[in-house]
Amino acid sequence: MSHVKAGGTAKNVHDSPGQRLGVKLFGGQAVKRGQVIIRQVGMSKRPGAGTFISRNFTIHAARDGFVAFNQRKVKTFSGRTVPRTEVTVELVAPAQPPTAKAAK
Q1: Is there a domain that residue 4 lies in?
Q2: Which of 4, 6, 53, 75 has its CA 20 to 30 A from that of 25?
Q3: CA 62/CA 59 separation, integer angstroms
Q4: Where is pLDDT greater, at 24 or 7?
C-alpha cells in the first residue's frame, strides 16, 4: 500500500490565452497613421522610415502609405552582424507584377 494518499497531478495545469503576436499588415497593404503593423516581444523586426515603435515593441505606422519589408544587417552588442527585417511605410504603392490576362 502507498504511504501517501493519492492526490492527482496538480503541476502544469496553468493555461493562459495567446498574446495575438505577429504581423498584422503585410507588404504592399495600405496602412493609415497609427495603425499596428507588427506586435512582437523584443526587437526581432526593426522600425524604419515612416514607422515608430512603442514601449512593448509594437511597430505602428507614423503616416499613411503602404507597408514594405526590407532586410538589413544590424550590429549586435558583441560586434557580430546579423540580418534583421526592417519595416517601413512608403508613400507610393509597390509595382504589381503583370497578370497572365494582361500579358496576352
Answers
A1: no
A2: 75
A3: 9
A4: 24
